[in-house]
Amino acid sequence: MTGPKHSCGVVGMSAAHDVVNHIHKALNIIQHRGQESAGIAAYRNGVITTVKNSGLVNVALTKESMAGLSGESGIGHVRYSQLVTKGVVNAQPISLETTHGSIAIAHNGDITNFEELKKKYLAQGWSFSTDSDSEILALLFSKNMSQTDDPIRALRMMMSEVDGAYSLTVMVNERVFGVRDPYGFRPLCLGELEEGYILVSESAALDSMKGTFIRDIMPGEIIEIMPDRFKSYPLSTNHPKAHCMFEWVYFARPDSIIDGKEVYDVRKRVGMILARESPANADIVMPVPDSGRAHALGFSIGSGLQYEEGFMKNRFVERTFILPDQKQRERAVSMKMNPIRSTVKDRRVVIVDDSIVRGTTLKKLVKILRDAGAKEVHVRVGCPPVIAPCYYGVDMRTRDQFIANSYSVSEIRDIIGADSLAYISIDGLVEAIDFPENDLCLACVNSKYPTNIPGEKHRFQSTLRTDFAQ
Ligand code: 5GP
Ligand code: MG
Q1: Does 397 reside within a domain?
Q2: Chain segment 7-29, per-residue pLDDT in tens
Q3: Ligand 2 centroid to 358 CA: how many Å?
Q4: Does a structural domain hold residue 1?
Q5: What's the CA-to-centroid distance between 342 and ligand 2, angstroms?
Q6: Residues 16, 78: one domain?
Q7: Which atom of ligand 1 is nearest to the CA of 403?
Q8: Total tally of structural domains belonging to the chain
Q9: pLDDT at position 335, please?
Q10: Domain co-membership, 296 together with 190
């Protein structure tokens, strides 16, 4: 697989008034889903105008850059990519002018048959202007629009050709649609604001906008929002589901509710189950801020050990995970985390994080705790060992970067210098999320892929292509 991998955030809104400020606000609230670039496309008087730039929402979308951007319909995007690509060529929304009007698309997820489709359509004379898999969605959709002139049919045709993960907001002139792939990999929900309806990756955005959560978009559903109502086009058949477990474990905000399960609640349960599965003889339990906080609280509840804050995090050192080389990542972790000595000194400490990928973070943190006088350090992890790449939008890419692929748990314990190390089991994680195992994507921890990925084990055959002709 080439091309950037990303788990991003999307917004769409239709209202009786200008929606640009609302979309800006929603993008701010889902900023954690993407810090590389941000963009808004808005429709007014026959034209879709798109503003997109590199950087955080408030840097990319300023009063100045958004001057002249307005409309009663709009979509927005925040983009996250492991590849630190400069410039805005891959930023979204992607917009196209067609004979059937203006089209704009914002995409969260990864299209797994992108290379295949790209090859096929290059041979037919198409050209691509980005290296983003999202472009194929826009091109297919506009091709289908020119054949059908019906956005719903055009989206369905597009869905029958693409495979993988996609939560989308789509605009065709003033009409705004939301689409979720039939597996439901990435979240997307519907809310009502005083001024109209909104589609957004995470429900947390609705709370701070004084909106009402209506529901999650169903896997495979297309939904059209209008200022005073919405219309649903559900999938007519049963299709296997594969909600990404990593949304609950790490990616989403704790205050979001995804497919009926509050992220905070799931993380707390993960911690409680960890305490049950792998108790530790210790004095206190502390989180790796901020990603391990709810998991650590759950561990404290489950074990009866006192919860303490043991690290202060420098919030201005960001994204250690994606820095390009190991030395830089290690240095950044030390800059980012400082111990609170009084809680650590002479104590037996349990430290809880959401996940171990390369092991960089915990190796550094265990050393920091020992230097601060901790007597023992026990590490507990809220995600089973990550052993397989994600093809659906989380930036965990190659097998050799996963420490759990090269070493056993006891070897990893020694590498990170802990007195003990335990991960939650896959069964424990499934219990915490509280979905049937078959409705979750656990590919990064069990190597069973819900869709067909060349060279990988396929969990089940997709029924999409045959069932989809409706
Ligand atoms: P490691 O240091 O083991 O390579 O990565 C684990 C740490 O990175 C955890 O603290 C976790 O919160 C964080 N993490 C896990 N997945 C991701 C990701 O996709 N992006 C970013 N930025 N951080 C991640
Ligand atoms: Mg973290």
Answers
A1: yes
A2: 799 999 999 999 999 999 999 99
A3: 12
A4: no
A5: 23
A6: yes
A7: 3
A8: 2
A9: 83
A10: no
- In this model, does residue 466 exceed pLDDT 50? no
Q: Are residues 318 and 199 in the same domain?
A: no
Kindly state the average pLDDT of the residues 126-140. 91
Q: Which tokens hold the place of 366?
A: 């265990």
pLDDT at 30 exceeding the cut of 70: yes
The last residue of one of the domains, among 242, 277, 311, is: 242
**Stretch 77-94: mean pLDDT:** 77
Q: E-strand spans in 62-160?
A: 73-79, 94-98, 101-108
Whether residue 235 is found in the same domain as residue 99: yes
Instruction: Answer yes or no: do 304 and 422 share one domain.
Output: yes
DSSP 8-state secondary structure symbol assigned to residue 164: B
Q: Where are the alpha helices (DSSP H) in 149-230?
A: 151-161, 204-208
Please report the pLDDT score of residue 461 as a whole number.
53
* 208 in any annotated domain: yes
- Domain holding 67: CATH number? 3.60.20.10
Q: Is 355 in the pocket of ligand 1 (CB under 6 A)?
A: yes
Catalytic: 8?
Answer: yes
398: domain CATH number is 3.40.50.2020
Q: How confident is the model at residue 329 (pLDDT cuts 50, 70, 90)?
A: confident
Domain annotation covers residue 457? no
Name the residue type at position 425: S
Over its C-alpha atoms, the chain yields an Rg (Å, rounded) of 22
**385 DSSP assignment:** P
Query: Which tens digits make up the pLDDT trace of 173-215?
Result: 999 999 999 999 999 999 999 999 999 999 999 998 999 999 9
Average pLDDT over residues 148-156: 96
The reply to whether ligand 1 has any atom less than 6 angstroms from the CB of 353 is: yes
Reported in sequence order, the residue ranges of 344-390 that DSSP labels E, i.e. its strands, are 348-353, 376-381
| Token representation of residue 248 | 């609950």
List the end-to-end C-alpha distance of the chain, in Å, as a whole number. Answer: 31
Determine how many CB atoms are found less than 10 A away from the CB of residue 7: 29
Lowest mean pLDDT across 42-51, 58-67, 367-376, 453-462? 453-462
Please check whether residues 203 and 76 belong to one and the same domain: yes
Q: How far is the CA of 353 from the centre of ligand 2 (A)?
A: 7
> Mean pLDDT score of the chain, rounded to an integer?
92
If asked whether residues 12 and 120 sit together in one domain, one would say yes
Domain that holds residue 35: 8-242
Structure tokens at 24: 């800006």
Same domain, 213 and 290: no
